[in-house]
């Protein structure tokens, strides 16, 4: 059996998979932020006590965690030092220098994780091609190591210029540090993120160093706790890239697990796509404070070679860049708790959020500003008596009062029109984000399905699908524990990238062979650390551009032996991809390749794929009632059927307008659309099908 | 009550802004030149059929206020009735457009299915080179008139029915140093206008002409009203300030920068007439350029929070005497006018500090924007390295100036590793300069030092900097930052260079840029002792300076 658990900010979610019958049991407990392992143990113990879990039967434990993210967001990582090439001490402070908001001169840059006083310089120099221009000054290196040893640091990052091209100096510096400052964790940029652009690489390496001691302790504690319970199975950790790795590898590169939970959520969407026969999926996760949007092409989640953490209002350029592969998610400040207000006679929503405390006005916990959730309640989409499965009552009067006061009266609108305005403006910002993820990145939404989850996702998905001409919306079962389910379907894999800037012509196959040989040797070493045996399934890709461009396009390259025509193939692949992405290409222009990637998947993965959830019996009349809900198509507040999701059987369908209620969320089915339950148990809305 | 409901208006307005942003995304992703792709030195805009600006992408402010005039001017040469679907009118004229030749505007009409004109998508991008005396077409020294600055393109239909006119293109590319980059950026510019047109058409189809047209009227009306309201909140009066630029090349005197800002009845008039005369060097500001940064400055000080459009343009007026430095007459040379934008802002800042002290800050560090170029001996390839060395912000009314952040315009730097990979240079250091930030209750940001060595003979550097002679001022008792220096290190010997020189370089030469520190805000004696101690700990301020300038005691620094 496999146990998967995702420790999030509010809840710790569990999914237990029994391969014998493919069934999955899901449950959740409140997270204990100070000692995350406690909630985990409580949740497992309760299950053991109830006889639902035999620790000795567990053969894999899969885990997604926010520990690394929180350490960065709350600046609670280890006291960390940084060692740079002499003359470049300020690499973190200087950064890329662009304001994330042009019209704000009172803003500040992200606060680096290492302050200037904790940054040390050492004389050394490597050229872009890896040639040593100045050897590492051993005496200086020894002196710096001694200061670090005596400085009370728990961790140190080493990031020298062009170390991606030649790691010798960083390695030597690490040796000296290891000898002089035993017990201090060492992260070298050539190991953590051997990619060019010194600020981004240094930022990544420093983040790795900053979270490493914490992640070490956390994973050790987790392992102990599981063993205490009698679970001896190896623990696997979800990386931001969507691959599971061993504890040993997660500890070696903790910066790779920063987006652990969201990555698992996207994997769940991929699995749902497989169940529903759609390889192309747009993912839409809308929670309390933000919405996260992603894409899956041919069953494979889109990834990005870098992303930012700790951004201000989700604005690009305001956070700390991390050059590690991650499932590509666009996050915007539009969630159920996003606050609505008027400005210049218009409606504005977010990016600030009422959060969980005080929460939307309708929570009755002191929130007075209207939020998206308040609008959804006023519009009749939410059931005040069945929020979170009835665990929480919503106060419609409070929501109405807030919207009336802050939106309706100032704009001279009726209450429903005002609430509709808030709902639509939130939709518009999500539509804009979805457009970026789809059309701007060369994806035709008409060929995709939209998988919506999170507490608020299914409320907005129908409108979003219409705006983008997406023909089908899927609301997965068990969406409330999506990341935990996603873990069950994850692959065990390792992925690496490296920078080698190369003018790519047809005669360069040998250089490509050498680069991939180096990369794949590293991969094999990491795979061995995960206990991977035998042939690895390796997928390759590269970032390329027309010489002179500054942004690269990442393209997949063929696997297998690299022959004399490999470079020519790579060129062709790039020209084709460029045309797909931008609508034109330039076959005569010289091409440059900058970064090289390889991903290896280990055998015996996706243990829990194809699971079945215990859910609704699908008996009786699924329509359990009727209430008024707002649809402009039908002239405003409209009697709308309320459907109990758990009573909806495969094959049955209901035409919109309808509201499908389940514990974690409510799905709004628009007039003209039709909802049904698939054989796999997912809700599927066919957009425009009931017209 | 307007004809259009608030919900629709909100959504349509957001869509206009998002179209302009999307155009920028397309332009950046497919551009070739560093200025565009890393520096975001470009703008995108959406215009209605009357040629009024409806929305502008949030990129460089360098074209704020300039773009509407450029569009109007382009359409004077090629009137709308001569335009067909897929055509684009292109100009880089300094007077008609963005103030110097490297800024090339692409104006594309958008037609609906019935071939009726519904508006324009427009973008402008800073090109790496437009020919002329020196690489980058931005030299100051020795460039006395525009004819030496490269190719001047009066508005022409460079794109006809979606395709570049091959003859015109040949003429243009024959005149520039890096034709493949210019061509690549041209393609990206055409692409961006296509993307915008597609979205605009969809929006029209979705909402219908009536809704869109009344939305446009409403957007312009409300934007103007909002901007007026914010300007009215400023104390009325005339506020003046005087500053200067170092010179207009080696051996010349300062260029005086004088501004008088009048705030009256919700309108701001920014008048540079009392400034010096236009100069015989590539530094002059054409009025469109002056207007761009005057608009930006007033936007900041009035706190205008509405995306830019024609409505806002109505309430910020920029004036300068014709023939003055800030309203130069053709054929004034203007390649290096970018060096003036920070000073335009500094002058407005100094004036507005009298009206709204809490919104003002000490003067910026300024910048260095050198262009290196030549033919690489090792590869035989022609190269141009465009660099942006960006210093600190002045102290602000409630916190220190940001370190190493782009002032006024908004560009990213180019990574050292990228520069060294693409050009025959070695960069020896890039670091903050201790004790350079103007002291104050809130300290100015530090200057930045960057040392660049030539690895190839026969290179030229075109310097574009300032604040070598007049230090960035402090405000309300805050001290000035240290002045800037540019030093040529040859065989161990140091030679001071002017801020706007053109120099031939040899292999092994090092050009060392040492930017000014930014100005402080408030009396340094009132700076918190903790802040002084932390500055010393981090090395922004030396112990000696902490004692001498901030009056720190040993106990303070312990």
Automatic annotation (TrEMBL), chain A:
GO terms for molecular function: 5-oxoprolinase (ATP-hydrolyzing) activity. Pfam families: Hydant_A_N, Hydantoinase_A. One of its GO terms (cellular component) is cytosol. Residues 3-178 form the Hydantoinase/oxoprolinase N-terminal domain. Residues 201-491 form the Hydantoinase A/oxoprolinase domain. One of its GO terms (biological process) is glutathione metabolic process. Signal peptide: none annotated. PANTHER family: 5-OXOPROLINASE RELATED, HYPOTHETICAL 5-OXOPROLINASE (EUROFUNG)-RELATED. This is Methylhydantoinase. It comes from Caldovatus sediminis. The lineage of its organism: Bacteria, Pseudomonadati, Pseudomonadota, Alphaproteobacteria, Acetobacterales.
UniProtKB/TrEMBL annotation, chain B:
One of its GO terms (cellular component) is cytosol. InterPro entries: Hydantoinase_B, Oxoprolinase-like. It comes from the Bacteria. Residues 5-524 form the Hydantoinase B/oxoprolinase domain. GO terms for molecular function: 5-oxoprolinase (ATP-hydrolyzing) activity. One of its GO terms (biological process) is glutathione metabolic process. Pfam families: Hydantoinase_B. This is N-methylhydantoinase B. It comes from Caldovatus sediminis. The lineage of its organism: Bacteria, Pseudomonadati, Pseudomonadota, Alphaproteobacteria, Acetobacterales.
